[in-house]
Amino acid sequence: MTFKAPDSLSEQIAHYLAERIIRGELKPAERIQELKVTQALNVSRGSVREALLILERRHLVTILPRRGAHVTELNEHNVRSLCMLMSELYILLGNAVATHLRSDAELAPFLAIQQRLRVACERKDIKAFVEDSFAVMRAAYPFANNPYLQETVENLQPAMSRTYYLALDQRKAEMDDFLVLFAQLLDAVVARDLPRIRAVLVEYCQRSCDLVLMALVPA
């Protein structure tokens, strides 16, 4: 495999490994061997090391002295902690959109994402559904105009994508429920109903958390 600009080589390697972790091809606690990645992707070992540091910042790998990089484990404590934090970050973004929305035209990106989510749901396309779920947040960034919030969400997004993918892979029918919640969220944003925005997003994150925890239980 050959990687090219515009992303840096290390970012591209990190993205490649992140996708494998998110889809479950690299299992929790599995060691990521630098030499194997170097040979498989025909890249330098230094670039792989930098990619692993990027993934550590994004909470997908843990790097231990003399033990190397391992895929982070998913357990109840980590899942609940992540979902609780993401809930508050989502609420900040939702409130920002509601507060700064000036015209119906500014809703267009969200409506387009809603339509793509419907299509992904109909096709049972988990990868597209997860990606467009996070496209919602990115559409909200300009309204928040907060680079620190944006950076925090972006660094946590791969870890959250991993949990969503795990949950939806085992319970595809739940995508319909998320679509309903997203429609309710849009209604609350248009109404500038901040308490309702919080309620919908808390429910959304709690439902996501519950699904992930159920998926972690061995069949």
Automatic annotation (TrEMBL):
This is GntR family transcriptional regulator. Keywords: DNA-binding, Transcription, Transcription regulation. InterPro entries: GntR_C, TF_FadR/GntR_C, Tscrpt_reg_HTH_GntR, WH-like_DNA-bd_sf, WH_DNA-bd_sf. It comes from the Bacteria. One of its GO terms (molecular function) is DNA-binding transcription factor activity. Residues 7-74 form the HTH gntR-type domain. PANTHER family: GLUCONATE OPERON TRANSCRIPTIONAL REPRESSOR, TRANSCRIPTIONAL REGULATOR, GNTR FAMILY.
